[in-house]
Amino acid sequence: MTLFPEMFRGPFDCSIVGRARDSGLIKLNVHNIRDFALDKHRVTDDVPYGGGPGMVMKVEPIMGALRSLPDGGLRILMCPQGEVFSQEIAVYLSGLPHLVLICGHYEGVDERVRSAVDREISIGDYVLTGGEIPAMVVVDAVVRLIPGVLGKERSSLQDSFADGLLEGPQYTRPREFEGMAVPEVLLSGHHEMIRKWRRKQALKRTVMQRPDLLKKARLTPEDQGLLQEILKEGGWDSGPSEIS
Ligand code: 4GM
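Predict the joint structure of the above. Result:
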């Protein structure tokens, strides 16, 4: 639900989300909150009680929009005050049959809107002009988790974050670019060596870039061993190897 339905055209019609929609795996409806404004000028915002700068979204149009839908969808208000969105929340939401995302605009929404929502979600600690881009972020993260949306060959189970680690480096052709070679192990055809190398790179990248993630990561005994190796090796250089 939004005051700017046109904003959703690109993200909802293109690429993987657009294909999922075309193939009928998901349904995405965009509702214009202005259609539920009560007055003849279709006003959706007003000045704040008590004074102060900016405008506040009125409660009646949003309530009208919510009441126009069948019961049962989880109602989510996109707002900076919400719980910070994560892969874990995306996985949870992807298991639900129906979501309703409410996008505020201006300085925010009348507080009484909150009485009609189940959950408040923020995509991060920054303020945007509206909840539209956050809603697109949530839709994208959730849709790609729905079975059949990603090809068989690219399961979301292999994602960065699926096990709480960052993804390691990836390469495609050519074998050498401007002096930077693809690591030899990836060309070796030794599947077990490649698997172990990739796992170690993922661990190394997580240690270096996001050590906070390691506390929550699900680490196997093999991971613990690889971590020991990484810490012993030190020399935090994970960049592409130079040909000398
Ligand atoms: C206040 C209340 C979300 C402001 C509801 C929305 C940032 C985020 C807005 C609202 C927003 C975020 C609009 N800014 N960090 N602005 O997810 O929808």
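The radius of gyration is 23 Å.
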